[in-house]
Design goal:
The structure holds two protein chains of two kinds. Chain A is mainly beta. Chain A is built from four helices and 15 strands. In chain A, strands 3, 4, 5, 7, 10, 11, 12 and 14 form an eight-stranded mixed β-sheet that branches. The relative contact order of chain A is 0.19. Chain B is mainly α. Chain B has a two-stranded antiparallel sheet. The longest helix of chain B has 25 residues. Chain B is globular. The termini of chain B are far apart. Classes of the chains: A mainly beta, B mainly alpha. Chains A and B meet through loops of A and helix 5, helix 6, helix 8 and helix 11 of B.
Chain lengths: 257, 338
């Protein structure tokens, strides 16, 4: 009896396996990678660049930020959204996976910088306790972007120093350290970029995002406001941080690799 | 022994065994949460993080765990010392490795479970949100939570305690939750003042009673803010402290000029143990605090109308201080696992 059963079961299994409809994938895998530059040079951290029309030198030591709530827009205005998707981008990790995008033809893409109001604070519609996100989630405090005492997230960390007297040393009395950590609902920014993109099903793509730090800090006066960690919308720190985040649109351009 | 006798013997043995098991279960730690004083309102508790003895014990271990800080230097209890009503005796406590200082005095944690918002500016809505701030803050414990959890996962004691408390491995989520359970149940256990309220008229001396009268009188207005069973309205007030630029109080959170220099009213329970005083520890003694109030503050822009010059004789000041001492718990705190 055993001798009969085994081949019958195997044959049945083989039959159903054959009958299984082959999966047809209608999506493409989509990543994004930011490349940092300063003017037209590749940016290196802790490397000097001219600042304030060349009257000073600037060095960057940290740029870490959230990008998320991506979307891709077709010529007819319809969109594919990757809402509630957050990536942490930082040195050594300026690349992340957006998701599976429907094959087709797109003309624009949108990126949100920061954590939108639905999740940023406990007042948000989708808010949850930060420590409840899985440890490897971008919104877990382990990402070092959660602003514990103010119950929201730091959207961007930009830190560095300025050689104010342009003598090549960054340790003189007039030289400064700067630290900009914008992070409240009023400083969340979403920008739309031109992107002609025709992903084909089953293929993988990387959106190349060029970020020019010189453009990002264009309206920042680090000599005037060196520390901008605004948890509220009043005062110089808020204005300084706003001057930074307003430039995400101009500082980034997109292409497909 | 006949068969009947043997059967009787067997029944007696089982009965004794059942009684023995019952006795054992009674000697186990109670699952009932520590209770606040009977005259107090019930302690708010989130449905997703209810008290169990195992959670409390885990939270307690974590509260005293130095491995949660950079270089295994400090624990929560380093700055929130049980013998000092979970406060500290320096104006500003050093962080991990003594390398960094914040800018605020370490507040007492007793009865913190009743607070609807935490921190001096009120930016944190619950104890479940709370622990992240000091654990990762550079001037405090200065360690990424992922590293803290890795340290805990390497310790079989914590593997066991997390399993018992939350049926899971050590994780960031349950680290924060266990600390919340422990801190929620740090309750005052009764002071001479509480005994007096319960009918023991001898619990307070004449001096303390005189101080109590002054404290609750419109003449001083102390109880205008230090009200209720916690001796705090849990609101935010500018009490006319000379402004120091590094800490704008609740303004930091709201940006409203009317909130500049306003800080949460601290509870006065156990205040005799929590010197130095004020959000930055600027006053070394209750006498200095009373002197500030007696002078009527420094006339800051948002100074509360309740803070005005007080015509108090030295012996009246002493009486108020005596009353404040009577708010000190009589039962010392002990770790449950010692």
């Amino acid at each position: 009896m055993k001798k009969i059963f085994t081949p019958v079961i195997l044959l049945t299994l083989a039959f159903f396996t054959e009958c299984k409809k082959p999966e047809t994938k209608d999506t493409a895998s989509c990543d994004i990678e930011f490349t940092l530059g300063y003017n037209k040079n590749t940016l290196q951290f802790n490397h000097s660049y001219p600042y304030d029309n060349g009257s000073k030198n600037i060095q960057f030591s940290l740029l870490k930020f959230y990008a998320g709530n991506f979307y891709f827009e077709r010529a007819d205005g319809t969109r594919e959204h990757f809402s509630d998707k957050y990536l942490i981008l930082e040195e050594g990790r300026y690349k992340g996976h957006i998701g599976e995008l429907k094959a087709g033809s797109y003309v624009k893409a949108g990126i949100g910088y920061g954590v939108n109001e639905n999740r940023n604070t406990q007042n948000g519609a989708d808010a949850q306790i930060a420590t409840d996100y899985p440890q490897d989630h971008a919104l877990n405090p382990a990402a070092d972007m959660y602003w514990g005492w103010a119950q929201g997230y730091i959207f961007t960390k930009l830190e560095g120093r300025i050689d104010a007297d342009n003598n090549g040393s960054f340790g003189d009395p007039n030289d400064i350290l700067f630290s900009y950590h914008p992070g409240n609902d009023e400083l969340y920014r979403a920008f739309e970029y031109t992107l002609n993109f025709a992903p084909e099903a089953g293929k993988s793509y990387t959106i190349a995002a060029s970020l020019d730090l010189n453009a990002l800090i264009q309206n920042c006066d680090f000599m005037a406001v060196q520390f901008a960690h605004p948890a509220n919308t009043s005062g110089n720190q808020f204005i300084a941080a706003k001057n930074l985040v307003d430039q995400w649109g101009n500082a980034v351009s997109l292409a497909v690799k | 022994m006949g068969q009947r006798g043997f059967a009787r013997c067997k029944i007696s043995f089982y009965a004794l065994f059942v009684l023995f098991l019952q006795a054992c279960s009674h000697s186990k730690p109670a699952e009932q949460a520590p209770q606040p004083l009977s005259s107090w309102p019930p302690l708010p508790e989130p449905y997703f993080n209810r008290y169990t003895q195992a959670r409390y014990e885990l939270g307690e271990r974590l509260f005293f765990e130095k491995r949660l800080s950079a270089g295994n230097a400090v624990s929560c209890a380093s700055c929130h010392r049980p013998e000092l009503a979970f406060a500290d005796n320096v104006p500003v406590s050093p962080g991990a490795g003594n390398s960094a200082f914040g800018f605020r005095n370490s507040p007492g944690l007793l009865n913190i479970g009743y607070a609807p918002h935490l921190m001096a500016e009120g930016g944190i809505p619950s104890l479940e949100h709370f622990s992240v701030a000091p654990l990762q803050e550079a001037a405090e414990m200065n360690q990424n939570l992922a590293l803290s959890v890795r340290k805990l996962q390497a310790d079989t004691m914590y593997l066991r305690l997390f399993r018992a408390a939350y049926d899971t491995l050590p994780s960031i989520r349950y680290l924060a939750r266990a600390l919340a359970v422990y801190q929620r149940y740090l309750l005052s256990s009764g002071s001479p003042y509480d005994a007096y309220l319960s009918g023991d008229t001898k619990a307070l001396g004449l001096q303390e009673k005189k101080g109590m009268e002054l404290f609750f009188s419109p003449r001083t207005g102390c109880s205008g803010c230090h009200s209720g069973f916690l001796f705090s309205d849990l609101g935010f007030h500018d009490i006319g402290l000379k402004i120091r630029e590094n800490d704008p109080g609740r303004w930091r959170l709201t940006g409203l000029e009317s909130d500049r220099n306003r800080f949460k009213t601290p509870s006065l329970r156990n205040v005799s143990r929590t010197a130095p005083y004020m959000h930055d520890g600027r006053f070394r003694s209750l006498k200095e605090v009373l002197e500030h109030y007696r002078q009527g503050g420094t006339h800051t822009p948002n100074q509360s109308a309740l803070v005005r010059p007080l015509d108090l004789a030295p012996h009246e000041v002493e009486a108020i201080i005596s009353f404040l001492h009577s708010l000190t718990d009589t039962v010392p705190y002990k770790k449950s696992y010692l």
